[in-house]
Backbone:
């Protein structure tokens, strides 16, 4: 009988379901729209049906060990989603409690998406034998999951690990959080687009990106393509992004001295274009005792299934305790 | 029979010994000069004799549970002191191994002084029921000890928790570590003296501190006294120190979301003069989810015995595991 865990990744648009075994093989997949529901009870009903449908498609004998959920602003301690700006469910949503009414598994647990990615990396990916590492997710914003002594760092209130909101530039760029100079205003898909705007304003340098701005096609992906093609502004934007990220990571290393830092998500797919200069700037800013000890590695979670793998891994992590 | 632990605090000048019970009562004290010895073997011989002498002075029945040592650059994993700049023992010194040849206790363990202070606070002081907190020691430099999920954060290599070397000002003040802009160049006994020099150069403001510079009596203590007496420059220096510290602590909170941050050592003795503005600047820089949750507290370890209490607490912490 194969042991499996149910992984659910809740995004603003879609909620993706995966039934995953201990090795990270996804036996069945499903999804429902998230943004169709204003009412959390209707959403949970629909989600539960979809999970049951997924389970039915598996023909071999399985033992379901639990449900792991990754969600924006998911709080591991309380099992609630709290004031997630990109979800229609407002206020504090007791998701774990509601799912416990539907399912009787030993583990039903929740955390935020970056933490889920970190645990996924530890259970299935490149961090398998690591006790101390940091996961940085470079999506629309910058998320982070920190593992110390083989345990996720949740902090006193369940909200630890917000490296996207470390202030790296006093009085710097305005951030969605209401403050200025947060790391994610520089190092994220939106951050690198803002850097291009800065550079376009600052110089007269010709660049294919100028046309993309006017045609509305500028994106982190188009900046990457331009950089690969040798566009000077695009290359400068990657270098600047890496400089900010490298400096911030050097400070993070002084905190927890990890074995490695993993990069995950859109910008991380730029591979060496972002990883090599980030490593260089990090090393330049590290205290001597940490130099040449900390790897920067692209996440080894497979792109399409990464989010549900991360979510499902919460179950195995919980059962290890 | 009273259970006791031996605490040894190794400083550049003196090594202080204390025999401490589980409640933090110091039953016997001793010390030997550290800087008299170039040879670690001679030092360990002398230290061992001094410890035995201390034990002999105790008349009641005791059960010795182990030895805990706090030392600059002490590595908990390897039990070695590594390249401590202010000790005469050069290179890597296998202190725990050498002490194990002299004593047969179940626990003989070592860490750096700031980590020892953090564990001391957790065992005997103000952090007794806390699972997540940060200790900042404001001495000649700035040291830190981070506790997460009730465990000391040592990191991959044993050197985690060097918040004194987080870079808070790119291209800022030169630091003894060879880089620029480290937190301890601003927030420490030497840092606040450097701030006074900056202010004396920057303004024409009259200040008692001008005479102290020429007479060579300027110190963090004299700056504190001047601030208490209302000296404008001294007050400005405290405000600037608190601003730098508050900003750095806000970033540290985004990492581990602690319940409290403890301040320890010389500058912390300035009490509200440093704590109140540091708290204010920290709150101003915190992400909303962390606001009004994190206390800044003066260490509750009693001044004179704080270092040996910290060292001895390593033994109880080790036995708890």
Residues:
């Amino acid at each position: 009988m194969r042991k499996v865990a149910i992984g659910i990744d809740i995004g603003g648009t879609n909620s993706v379901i995966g039934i995953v075994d201990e090795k990270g093989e996804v036996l069945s997949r499903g999804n429902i729209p998230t943004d169709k529901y204003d009412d959390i009870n209707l959403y949970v009903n629909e989600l539960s049906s979809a999970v049951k449908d997924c389970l039915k498609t598996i023909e071999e004998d399985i033992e379901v060990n639990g449900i792991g959920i990754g969600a924006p602003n998911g709080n591991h301690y309380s099992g609630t989603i709290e004031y997630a700006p990109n979800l229609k469910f407002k206020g504090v949503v007791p998701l774990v409690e509601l799912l416990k009414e539907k399912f009787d598994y030993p583990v039903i647990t929740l955390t935020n998406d970056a933490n889920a990615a970190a645990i996924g990396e530890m259970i299935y990916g490149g961090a398998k034998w690591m006790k101390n590492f940091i996961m940085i997710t470079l999506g629309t914003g910058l998320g982070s999951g920190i593992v110390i002594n083989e345990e996720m760092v949740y902090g006193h209130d369940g909200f630890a690990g917000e490296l996207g909101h470390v202030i790296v530039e006093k009085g710097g760029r305005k951030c969605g959080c209401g403050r200025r100079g947060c790391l994610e205003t520089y190092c994220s898909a939106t951050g690198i687009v803002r850097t291009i705007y800065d550079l376009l304003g600052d110089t007269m340098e010709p660049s294919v990106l100028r046309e993309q701005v006017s045609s509305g096609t500028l994106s982190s992906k188009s900046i990457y393509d331009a950089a690969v093609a040798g566009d000077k502004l695009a290359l400068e934007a990657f270098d600047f992004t890496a400089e900010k990220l490298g400096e911030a990571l050097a400070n993070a290393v002084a905190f927890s001295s990890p074995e490695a830092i993993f990069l995950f998500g859109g910008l991380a797919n730029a591979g060496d274009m972002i990883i090599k200069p980030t490593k260089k700037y990090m090393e330049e800013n590290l205290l001597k005792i940490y130099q040449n000890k900390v790897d920067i590695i692209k996440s080894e979670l497979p792109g399409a299934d990464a989010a549900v793998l991360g979510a499902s891994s919460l179950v195995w992590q919980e059962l290890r305790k």
